[in-house]
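New to this. Explain the following:
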Amino acid sequence: MLDADGDPAWRCLEVPSHLDALQSARALALLSAYHDWGGIDVVWIERPMGKHIRSIADLSRTLGVILSGIPPSIPVSEITPGEWKKTIGLRGHATKQDVGRWARDHARAGFAGNLADGDLDEHEADAFAIATACRIASERAVQLIGSPL
């Protein structure tokens, strides 16, 4: 997501870890539907990709649940892992370690991630990298077509 200042941001909608995939999807539907979407100008979502069919099915279910809770007034776009990695200057098949190093080098004070110990976990690093790539992609789109507002 991009916050009101155009800075990369993310929201974590956490469900209890003891739930199975179907129960998690139902819980996520409630969290998404009642989430405060105020101040959000655009939502970008990473397109589920991979070689394990069951994982992709679970991720796709989760994606559908999240999409159903986003107000129709908020534009939604998707980006593939290779696209966001290239957009921030990494190889399309960059590793988790590559993304982690990039995130540590680019995260700044005040960023929503856990910077108290100077480190981001792999999920925070991915979220920061994806949000940054999406901000860049949004800026490019505005340059091409102008601001929709």
